[in-house]
Design brief:
With 227 residues, this protein is α/β, with parallel strands linked by helices. The protein is built from eight helices and eight strands; from the N terminus they run βαβββααβαβαβαβαα. Strand 7, helix 6 and strand 8 form a beta-alpha-beta unit.
Length: 227
Amino acid sequence: MTRVITLVLALAVVLGTPGAARAPLGQHPTHTLDWRMNPVAVVGDSYTTGGDEGGLGTNGWTTHAWQSLLQRGLPLTFDVAAQRGSGYGARGDHGDSFEDLTARAVKPDDVLVVLYGSRNDQAANPILLPAMMYSTFQLARKSAPRARFLVIGPPWPTADPPPAVLRIRDTLAYQAQLTDAAFVDPIALGWFVGQPGLIGADGVHPNDAGHAYMADKIAPFIAAQLR
């Protein structure tokens, strides 16, 4: 399943919303958040698309996060390109990698690019994977030269992720550092550990409650990048 959506709100709702100054990151210019919509691109895998286990439509974490951020005075649009099975080195159920999804979602006026995942890279060649991550980040940088970048590593529902997932996490953290992106580590933060009620019957994917939970975790990181 590929999910490509744009979350927007009528202008009348956000007119008069207080602005928030955005501090510069490195050499990247400052953006100012005001009543105008500020575009955010989101690239992800099945944890973002949702599926039979939960997270479809308005139950997805991106919708919950968007609503939460709007309430905080951050008027954003979310352009989401996500595909089940996709990753930096893995191709999803429609044949796209994160680089393909980045090419689809990221636009020149984006103020933030969010990349989330992916555990699907367990089967990717560990020698080639760093280059695939680097290529994806460089494409995003070229496509949205003024944007900040938030890279979220692969989550795992238990306290004992396999070595391959830890390798993906460590490689991703290093590549994010090289590209001056903020990195969030769901494994180190124990997002789903000890909370089986947030995971669907397949034992892998978040249910609707899990998507609301992810939104609560991710929205503050997005807000921090935009202030």
